Amino acid sequence: MRSKPRIFLIYTGGTIGMSKDFETGALKAFNFSKLLHNIPELKLLDCEIDTFSFKNPIDSSNMNPEHWTEIARTIESNYENFDGFVVLHGSDTMSYSASALSFMFENLSKPIIFTGSQLPIGDLRTDAKENLITAIQIASLQENGQPLIGEVCLYFEYKLYRGNRTTKISAEHFNAFASPNYPHLVESGVNLTLNKQLFLPVSNNDNLIVHTRLDNRVAIIKMFPGMSESVLSTILSISDLKGIIIETYGAGNAPTEDWFLDLIKKTINKGLYIVNVTQCSGGSVDMGKYETSTVLKNLGVVSGKDITTEAAITKLMYLLGHNIPQEDFKTVFETSLRGEISL
Ligand code: ASP
User: Can you give the C-alpha Rg of the chain in angstroms?
Assistant: First the structure.
């Protein structure tokens, strides 16, 4: 008889495990054993659960690449012994972390599911229990004794999404995430509805590779009407900057004024990468569709296509960490590595 699926639960912090500070009334992360104590239902699940907690759980506003490495290394060292991984994480930067981890894991054959909540687990009206319990159930799904999902996902408010397609859209609603350019993978209702045709193929033959070299000499610049030359040139002249995500308008459009295009040209000629991502919440960059993006295309600006800003900045860190030859960078960035862009 096959044993029950084994799930590894990693607690990094976030509202799910927070309580009010006695003196200030502000929410802060508390210890993991208290969190588990609040969910006796975990014992009823048809899987075995082991846990690991960050020594100092954090509000996800303090998340950074060192923490991503800690999550990745923790999963790597438990990879053989578990069938799925659930990462409890604050919702504020969860899409960044899910995106980063998606690039850090190559040849994944088991699910890594990020989840959290808008209200602490101890709150009467909490959304934490449903999120956590269903995330664990989805991480346990198997077919012929093999995990059904082999990618980094995010589960929130009855939907499982591809992690690197998500963005946080609400600081108020339980439905806090959206995946504007890729449909959800699973929906939880009375039953779990699996959209298997949307899953990434589970990697079965290749060995897991964990990449932890991320280069954070990067920036995100959001365009706005009235942005001044001095602001843009100051940012672009930061001495150790290697790559920039530029959030443009609509289908990747930007001003055609000389000062703007000259700055872009000079920056690219210095060897920096500029990636064009739309500031619209859905849709794709399509350079050349309008005159206001044709020059960007001709100057060698990289197209982010329909990538989210969260996935773009983490992909940039990942690719810069791997010293991709300059002549290949554009092609590699514009290729879908983990299902983060539509081709
Ligand atoms: N500030 C919290 C965090 O991201 C919000 C949450 O968990 O929902 O850690």
Answer: 21
